[in-house]
Design brief:
This protein has about 375 residues and is α+β, with helices and mostly antiparallel strands. It has two domains: about 270 residues, Glycosyltransferase; about 70 residues, no CATH class. It contains ten helices and 22 strands. The chain has a three-stranded antiparallel sheet with strand order 1-2-3. Strands 8-9-10 form a three-stranded antiparallel sheet, with no helix packed on it. The longest helix is centred in the middle third of the chain and has 18 residues. It is globular and about 60 Å long. The N and C termini lie far apart (about 70 Å).
Length: about 375
């Protein structure tokens, strides 16, 4: 079509399954879900050998246009929808995709409590920056059960919020400064969203204090006669005449639910990336064999013959097939997460990674080194 572009983002084509799957189950017409699953599978097939995806691609040529990727803009809801699709529809295929993608993020993007961006082809860091859209990640980690990691990242995001009074769109971690052209705050909901999830998981009243700080800042800096205005520059708090719809559908909603979750009592809901609740129904977990065919099981060998197995059934930790420089296949642990420092020194457990052999979380010893320590009374 005229004036149409063939460029799209990973999140754009990989975040359709919740809405399309729900529509199919409500109407009985599974064309919608089939199309969304097809798009998701195609996108997943384009991942690198590191299980990383890029940020933008051409839907006609099927080629990546931007190889640098992270957990923020252009990719964020792709990860979110893999996990939430598993919760909503119960297909193991969604879980297997998410599990592999999550481990890759923890291995190649994580740097202590922060997440930088990296090249999907080799895992090398590209941009050391915090973006406001990344603040959804702690909330997603809560759904996975990774509470400690979620808490650590959330506190860093809130620290930046406290520094400026709101969360700037982009902050350069390697230079400890605002991005020169992206100093704005468009009333984004991600920090409020993660705060809500963390309080639901921990019931720690500190998160209610965080919510109160967010509400106070919104009232102090953004409230105007006709609603709430976006901030053009967080250093001057200059406003612009714009209020995004997500401020109502997400920011206000998550802040409200933080203090009054009666709506959720005794009921199971999952929220879409735009904050719309979808009911979790056991009847929706009926798998459709035509659509849900396993494509990403781990390959194992027995007596020289390859067969498909679930990585979660292996005696050792989950493994993925990789390729050496000489072309020979080998298995490398997919659960390995490196320590924060190359010399394995540490100050807290959060700076220790995950052991590649046992898949156990390493801890920081009294001497200040990461390891699998055994304590004997």
């Amino acid at each position: 079509m005229e004036n149409e572009t063939t460029e799209t983002s990973t999140s754009g084509c990989g975040s359709l399954i919740l809405e399309m799957g729900t529509l199919s189950r409500l109407t009985g017409d599974f064309r919608f879900e089939k199309a969304a699953v097809h798009a998701l599978r195609k996108l997943w097939s384009m991942r690198s050998s590191l299980n990383l995806l890029g940020t933008t691609l051409d839907v006609v040529t099927g080629e990546w246009l931007e190889f640098s990727s992270g957990i923020g803009a252009g990719v964020d809801s792709f990860y979110e929808y893999l996990m939430k699709a598993y919760i909503l529809f119960g297909s193991d295929e969604f879980w297997d995709m998410f599990h592999a993608a999550y481990l890759a993020v923890q291995r190649y993007f994580r740097h202590g409590p922060w997440y930088h961006e990296a090249d999907m082809r080799n895992g090398r860091a590209t941009y050391w920056q915090l973006t406001s859209l990344q603040a959804f990640w702690p909330g997603l980690q809560i759904l996975v059960g990774d509470v400690a990691a979620a808490n650590a990242s959330h506190r860093e995001f809130f620290h930046i919020w406290q520094k400026f009074g709101v969360l700037p769109e982009r902050y350069l971690l390697d230079r400890d400064m605002l991005h020169p052209t992206e100093k704005y705050y468009p009333l984004r909901p991600e920090l409020a969203e993660s705060t809500f999830y963390l309080f639901q998981a921990t019931k720690d009243p500190w998160y209610m204090e965080v919510g109160r700080s967010i509400v106070n800042s919104l009232n102090r800096y953004t409230k105007v006669k006709g609603g709430f205005a976006s901030i053009r520059d967080v250093t001057t708090m200059q406003l612009e005449d714009h209020q995004h719809s997500f401020f109502l559908s997400e920011t206000c909603k998550y802040l409200y639910l933080l203090y009054d979750d009666a709506f959720l009592a005794g009921q199971n809901y999952i929220f879409t990336t735009e904050g719309h609740p979808l009911p979790i129904r056991s009847s929706w977990h009926e798998k459709l064999p035509e659509y849900y065919v396993q494509h990403n099981c781990t390959r194992a060998k027995s007596k020289g013959h390859a067969f498909r197995v679930s990585s979660m059934t292996q005696q050792l930790c989950p493994a993925t097939t990789r390729t050496l420089n000489n072309g020979g296949p080998y298995l490398e642990s997919a659960c390995h997460v490196p320590d924060f420092r190359i010399d394995h020194s540490c100050r807290t457990d959060d700076e220790c990674g995950t052991d590649s052999t046992t898949c156990r979380k390493r801890t920081c010893s009294v001497a200040g080194y990461c390891g699998l320590w055994v304590f004997v009374d």
